[in-house]
Specification:
Blueprint (H helix, E strand, L loop, with lengths): L8 E5 L26 E2 L6 E6 L1 E2 L11 E2 L11 H16 L1 E2 L2 H6 L2 E8 L7 H14 L2 E11 L6 H10 L3 E7 L3 H6 L6 H13 L4 E8 L6 H13 L4 E6 L12
Parallel strand pairs: 2-6, 3-7, 4-5, 7-8, 8-9, 9-10, 10-11
Antiparallel strand pairs: 1-3
Helix pairs in contact: 1-3, 3-4
Bound molecules: S-adenosylmethionine.
Amino acid sequence: MLKSTLTPIFCALAPKPKPSTRVITNTFSNSTPTVRQNTSVKNSTPSSAYIHLPFCRKRCHYCDFPIVALGSASTQTHDDPRVINYIQWLCREINATKIEDELDSAKTPLQTVFFGGGTPSLVPPSMVGTVLETLRIKFGVSESAEISMEMDPGTFDCKKMEEMMLLGVNRVSLGVQAFQEKLLKSCGRAHGLDEVHEAIDIVKKCGVENWSIDLIASLPHQTSEMWEESLRHAIEAQPTHVSVYDLQIEQGTKFGRL
Ligand SMILES: C[S@@+](CC[C@H](N)C(=O)[O-])C[C@H]1O[C@@H](n2cnc3c(N)ncnc32)[C@H](O)[C@@H]1O
């Protein structure tokens, strides 16, 4: 877990066959590889990069991801030394990654970049730009690359969304979890329902064409009517994808102690 000493997580992945169809999936996984496992990319030129941006305003009651809680009021992070230092170390890790064939890398740039978290939308666009530039110099990033970002309601406005898009972010994964104020509160989210609707409006208004909503099923106090309502709202918002996760009760989380 990342506490005061932040270990940047960056993972460059070799190509693997893509599934031919997009379905509603249960894609929950918290097995992010460590940096040490990823300081060299063997046998193949990487086609994808996962960038972990670990900062959140607060820790959700179900979450055991490696994150750093900055405090509920933290929406401006440009002068936070924890964020600045992490980005610096992250870029060093990217630069230090050994690639077997540097020339081949220039010919086959990254096809996908995924900013996961944590809450990547808390990081200032200028710093996301620095990371992308470092990746471009080291691996190249394809003109047509899919650049995804996990974004949380209440951590971005239209201006920030547009700045991220100018940097190349063209896919958004919105962490909604539930469409009921009561459930958002009871799972410890740093935002309420109004911010969920605002975030959906921003993504649509800014013209992000490829975006998804995350929902969690089987939350404490979630009735089948609430679940149906959440699915209905998610579908009405017309994202290109909905990710449904079954609640995993993890040791050491607030839910794990209930
Ligand atoms: C890496 S997390 C995204 C973090 C993002 N800051 C957020 O909370 O919206 C990706 C998704 O995993 C799901 N998730 C995380 N922990 C979970 C758990 N213990 N059980 C089920 N789903 C979980 C949530 O839907 C979350 O949006």
